């Protein structure tokens, strides 16, 4: 039986390349721009605190580059950011490269359109070949290709939030796979598709739960996947609730966005792999230590 299982595992396993190194979703100027919006501080006051002219600070916001070194500590204090963490971003901090061999049945999928690059994620159970997709990104083709290459059956599609870049390929996926079950926290979703607190779903040996993380979007949801083979750490698919070194814009509420990250994401084990909607993979430990939006 062990030999048969081993052969089956070899038949279905794919040596998948590690995700390419990508830039942070937000450079230093993006973070400052978000913090200006969050704190309602004027450009004039921020420039004065930073020691830059308004034009220089505006250029920094736009490009992430500046010809003069800003005074980040007083600027961070004014904007409600953590000064030392902001300085690390300025110094080039980047999360450690992630070895996904610990999660053999996890695939990040990245697509680009309208100048926006977005991540979605596919997971599956290695024995049953049942799969779950988290968001769709812009294009269904790479998702359908992975399903075919790995001989998978897509059972569930979990939506982190209903912004266009995250669900653009939803129609195409449903057209090709009409039996897939949709999960969403949108108040406009049919009742049988809505997430409920304390729900859990088993995908073979994997256990999936949901946590409400509104703030960026009213229907923002984080999905936590646990009970991986060989006790690999949990995986949290977070949408735009948090990025490596930053957070999504507080379209609904900045305070709520940060509160929910603290309560629902930072309460996970430190080694939890964070899979954001944009930018590189990170961990709970890396974000609690380096994300300037959190003390």
- Quickly count the domains: 2
Principal-axes shape call: elongated
State mean pLDDT (0 to 100 scale): 93
Rounded to an integer in angstroms, the radius of gyration calculated over CA atoms is: 20 Å
Helical amount: 25-40%
What is the fold-level CATH name, i.e. the topology of the largest domain? Metallo-beta-lactamase, Chain A
Strand content: 15-25%
Topology, please?
Elements lengths: L1 H11 L15 H12 L3 H8 L3 H10 L8 H8 L3 H8 L15 E8 L2 E9 L5 E5 L6 H9 L3 E6 L5 H4 L2 H7 L4 E3 L16 E4 L2 E7 L8 E6 L8 E5 L14 H12 L7 E4 L5 E2 H7 L5
Parallel strand pairs: 3-4, 4-5, 9-10
Antiparallel strand pairs: 1-2, 2-3, 6-7, 7-8, 8-9, 10-11
Helix pairs in contact: 2-4, 3-4, 3-5, 5-6
Please give a quick description of this structure.
The chain has 295 residues and is of the alpha/beta class.
In words, what does this structure look like?
With 295 residues, the chain is α/β, with parallel strands linked by helices. The chain folds into two domains: 28-90, lambda repressor-like DNA-binding domains (434 Repressor (Amino-terminal Domain)), CATH 1.10.260; 95-290, Ribonuclease Z/Hydroxyacylglutathione hydrolase-like (Metallo-beta-lactamase, Chain A), CATH 3.60.15. Helix content is 33%, strand content 20%. The chain is built from eleven helices and eleven strands. A hairpin with a 2-residue loop joins strand 6 and strand 7. Helix 2 (28-39) packs across helix 4 and helix 3 (43-50) crosses helix 4 (54-63). It is elongated, with a radius of gyration of 20 Å. The termini are far apart.
């Amino acid at each position: 039986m062990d030999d048969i299982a081993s052969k089956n595992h070899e038949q279905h396993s794919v040596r998948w390349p590690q995700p390419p190194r990508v830039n942070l979703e937000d450079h230093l100027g993006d973070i400052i721009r978000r913090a200006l919006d969050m704190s309602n501080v004027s450009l004039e006051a921020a420039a004065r605190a930073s020691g830059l002219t308004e034009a220089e600070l505006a250029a920094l916001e736009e490009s992430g580059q500046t010809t003069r070194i800003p005074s980040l500590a007083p600027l961070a204090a004014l904007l409600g950011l953590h000064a030392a963490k902001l300085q690390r971003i300025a110094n080039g901090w980047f999360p450690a490269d992630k070895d996904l061999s610990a999660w053999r049945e996890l695939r990040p999928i990245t697509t680009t359109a309208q100048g926006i690059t977005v991540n979605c994620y596919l997971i599956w159970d290695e024995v049953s070949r049942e799969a779950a997709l988290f968001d769709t990104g812009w294009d269904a083709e790479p998702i359908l290709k992975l399903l075919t290459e790995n001989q998978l059956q897509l059972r569930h599609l979990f939506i982190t939030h209903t912004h266009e870049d995250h669900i653009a390929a939803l129609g195409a996926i449903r057209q090709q796979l009409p039996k897939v079950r949709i999960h969403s926290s949108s108040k406009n979703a049919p009742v049988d598709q809505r997430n409920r607190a304390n729900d859990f779903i088993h995908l073979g040996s994997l256990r999936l739960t949901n946590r409400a993380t509104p703030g960026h979007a009213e229907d923002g949801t984080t999905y936590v996947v646990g009970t991986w083979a060989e006790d690999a750490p949990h995986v949290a698919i977070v949408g735009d609730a948090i990025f490596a070194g930053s957070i999504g814009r507080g379209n609904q509420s900045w305070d709520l966005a940060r509160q929910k990250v603290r309560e629902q994401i930072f309460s996970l084990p430190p080694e939890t792999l964070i899979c954001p909607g944009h930018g590189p993979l990170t961990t709970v430990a890396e974000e609690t230590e380096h994300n300037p939006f959190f003390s």
